[in-house]
Amino acid sequence: MADPTNVLQLEYEILPVLTQRRSPRAYLDTPVSTEILNRIFAAGTSAASCIGEQPWRYLAASQAEQPEAFAKLLATLKPFNQVWAKKAPVLVIGLAKRTFAKDGNPNDFARHDLGQATATLAIQAAELGLQVHQMGGFTADEVREGFNVPADFDIVTAFTLGYPGPAELLEEPLRSRELTPRSRMPVGEILFWGAWPTPESEDFAEAQK
Predict the structure, then answer these.
(1) Where does the Nitroreductase domain start and stop, copy by copy (predicted)?
(2) Under a CB-based contact definition with an 8 Å cutoff, are residues 5 and 22 in contact?
(3) Which of 27, 188, 18 shows the shortest CA–CA distance to 8?
(4) Alpha-carbon distance 181 to 176, whole Å?
(5) What are the domain boundaries of the chain?
(6) Is the peptide bond before 173 cis (omega within 30 degrees of 0)?
(7) Would you give the DSSP letter of residue 132?
(8) Residue in 108, 98, 115, 112 with CA at minimum distance from that of residue 150
(9) Rounded to the nearest 5°, which phi and psi values hold at 60?
(10) Number of Cβ within a 10 Å radius of residue 93
């Protein structure tokens, strides 16, 4: 069930599903079954978190099963995201609980842990032939007010979820962006062994000395 579109080419071999995970804007109108959705979000629960707190929560709406809630969530997205996200089968908001459940102290790692859970469920989705597209282009205050989100939760991210469709489903310039080859920084630019590189060198080899 691999997604063959715009597979990532890296300098080192990694798990194939990681190269196939991408952020499409074109989706098929195929509904996602409850079983598949549960499997995807169950994968998110497997992610690591500070003292096992699992501070992540997801507010989701299926276009097929909760059309009113879907429309309400869609309206919280910025207009440039609504253009394509309205075709996605599922819309999701990711939230992080600011405090620890056991003592109410601030959880400074909550957003980090939400990111881990969302990355994990996105990989599971790709393994099952679906894709997630995460977005920052939404209005958190509208989500909080429209869905009565408690004050103890940060509204961090939005994402679509569904079966990816062909780029031809999109208008330009989104169509071209869908097919633009993806790239990533080489390992040498993000991994520094033993020391931070100096502004003069910015060199991986230098950082190893």
Answers:
(1) 19-163
(2) yes
(3) 18
(4) 10
(5) 16-208
(6) yes
(7) E
(8) 98
(9) -125, 155
(10) 25
CA-wise closest residue to 89 among 200, 165, 141, 145:
165
Which numeric CATH code is attached to 16-208?
A: 3.40.109.10
208 C-beta neighbours (distance < 10 Å), count: 13
In 13-103, at which residue ranges do the beta strands (DSSP E only) sit? 56-62, 90-97
What is the spatial distance between Cα 195 and Cα 189, in angstroms, rounded to a whole number?
13
Query: For the CA atoms of the chain, what is the radius of gyration?
Result: 19
φ, ψ of residue 92 to 5 degrees: the values are: -140, 145
Beta strand segments in 98-206, E: 131-135, 153-162
| Residue of 55, 68, 144 lying closest to 98 (CA atoms) | 55
209: pLDDT confidence band, cut at 50, 70 and 90?
very low
Cα distances (angstroms) measured from residue 160 to each of 132, 171, 203: 5, 18, 38
36 three-class SS: helix
